[in-house]
Amino acid sequence: MISAEVIEEGQSVKRNPRKLRDVVNLLKKHLGDSWRDSESLQYYKEIIDKHAILEENTDRANEDEEEGLFIQDEELSLLSV
């Protein structure tokens, strides 16, 4: 039996990037690229856009971290010379 949980307005939920991608693909397949212009689908647009911003910020943070590690590696190799 499925146990449904009530999600209150404003309560955040964990988003699965694969499921969001599936939703975008279904919207595009059935409605074309103009689905974003539909007033009745603004809910989906907002969720997808928020996820894209979060994903972009995460990617930037990871790039910055990787760059920091690269700089540290260079500094260590310079110190050992």
Describe this structure in words.
This protein has 81 residues and is mainly α. The protein has a domain at 40-81. It has helices spanning 17-31, 42-79. The chain is extended and about 45 Å long.
General form: extended
Kindly state the number of beta strands.
0
Rounded to the nearest angstrom, the distance between the terminal CA atoms is 65 Å
Estimated radius of gyration? 20 Å
What do the pLDDT scores average to? 75
Q: In terms of per-residue confidence, which ranges show pLDDT below 50 for 5 or more consecutive residues?
A: 77-81
Number of helices: 2
Tell me roughly what share of residues is in helical segments: 55-70%
Strand content: under 5%
Order of SSEs: HH
Report the sheet with the most strands, covering strand number, pairing sense and barrel closure: none
Instruction: Indicate the structural class.
Output: mainly alpha
